[in-house]
């Protein structure tokens, strides 16, 4: 099933429920930065996300330095934010709650 | 033991032995981009590096999207490239040889 980009209204509604994420109008994606106690904690978190991403066949763009992880979610096939990004963001939030 | 930045001559010698790495004069570090078959391969590689980095207490700055991993090595305490970066780069090269 093709994944489509959320329209402006649906995107606004989704973002209201994702206060920890920032919409990036340049990329059409959303970003969140997380800080952990140390590298082992940060990479442990990344490993959990990696398994989730592989199962969902939807992968983040992400950057890590020591205890910091910067995540960018977008759906290239849809040209912007899709429901799959929203689901991934919710899963990430639940994992770090 | 404090880690010191390589002087220009030692850095040039080290870079001669690291043809897959590019010196970034802005950051004072070195960069290498690797491509894998898919995300699972890329993240598997990252996991091996993460364990190595944790053992060495010397962590990369890195970015991943799907099958691509961009690695940046520098030594913040030394203000640039140190022997620890060279050792990490060699270990990464050996792992992907």
UniProtKB/TrEMBL annotation, chains A, B:
HAMAP family: Pterin_4_alpha. The lineage of its organism: Bacteria, Pseudomonadati, Pseudomonadota, Alphaproteobacteria, Sphingomonadales. This is Putative pterin-4-alpha-carbinolamine dehydratase. One of its GO terms (molecular function) is 4-alpha-hydroxytetrahydrobiopterin dehydratase activity. Gene3D superfamilies: Transcriptional coactivator/pterin dehydratase. It comes from Sphingorhabdus profundilacus. GO terms for biological process: tetrahydrobiopterin biosynthetic process. Keywords: Lyase. It catalyses: (4aS,6R)-4a-hydroxy-L-erythro-5,6,7,8-tetrahydrobiopterin = (6R)-L-erythro-6,7-dihydrobiopterin + H2O. It comes from the Bacteria. Its EC number is 4.2.1.96. InterPro entries: PCD_sf, Pterin_deHydtase. Belongs to the pterin-4-alpha-carbinolamine dehydratase family.
């Amino acid at each position: 099933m093709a994944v489509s980009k959320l329209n402006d209204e649906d995107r606004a509604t989704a973002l209201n429920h994702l206060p920890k994420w920032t919409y990036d109008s340049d990329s059409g994606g959303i970003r969140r930065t997380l800080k952990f106690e140390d590298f082992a904690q940060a990479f442990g978190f990344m490993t959990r996300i990696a398994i989730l991403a592989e199962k969902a066949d939807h992968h983040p763009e992400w950057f890590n330095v020591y205890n910091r992880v910067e995540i960018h979610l977008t759906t290239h096939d849809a040209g912007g934010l899709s429901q799959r990004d929203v689901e991934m963001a919710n899963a990430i939030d639940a994992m770090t709650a």
